[in-house]
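Supplementary Methods S3. Complex input for the adenosine-5'-diphosphate-bound model.
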Amino acid sequence: MAGSNTGTRRQRPNILITGTPGTGKSTTAAALAEATNFRHICVGDLVKEKNLHEGWDDKFECHIINEDLVIDELEDIMQGGGIIVDYHGCDFFPERWFDRVVVLQTENSVLYDRLTKRGYSGTKLSNNLECEIFQVLLEEARDSYKEGIVTALQSNTVEDISNNVASLADWIGSLRPC
Ligand SMILES: Nc1ncnc2c1ncn2[C@@H]1O[C@H](COP(=O)(O)OP(=O)(O)O)[C@@H](O)[C@H]1O
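Predicted complex, serialized as structure tokens:
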């Protein structure tokens, strides 16, 4: 049964897809949601849509997320299971929300191309590349969740996306009651 890691009674698992910006979280989460009929929640979009922030950070060129508001917004939704959350951070979510935490990783030259295409430059570009080089999100995930539920997956090619989605969909299928 889903939720066995957390002691919850969810019929379907919740999955967190995290990683440095540009590693393919949204693309992977959307494809997995389509394959499984799960609901994809992109926390970055949610923060903008529902104003769950405290303004704009000029230095890092992003919204200053209000973590408490995000948790309040999602708490009830997460109880039902079947949610795929994507966000470039993972240490502030309640541990009990997730049955599986996936950290996407991308080779630096590939990530550089993706981020420059997205218009990142200067400090924002170098901060994100460093974040990937030093595996900041993998360490954050390992510090925040039980070892057995954290998986690092490569996300360099379109084939990687298909393989990652297929293996996560298989895992979800394997949890379904007979
Ligand atoms: N594994 C991959 N192979 C090829 N292109 C990818 C891959 N992952 C992401 N991309 C491309 O990189 C860009 C950023 O992907 P996105 O899913 O928005 O990343 P994130 O949500 O982690 O910021 C998109 O143009 C997407 O199509």
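The chain has seven helices and seven strands. Residues 158-175 form the longest helix (18 residues).
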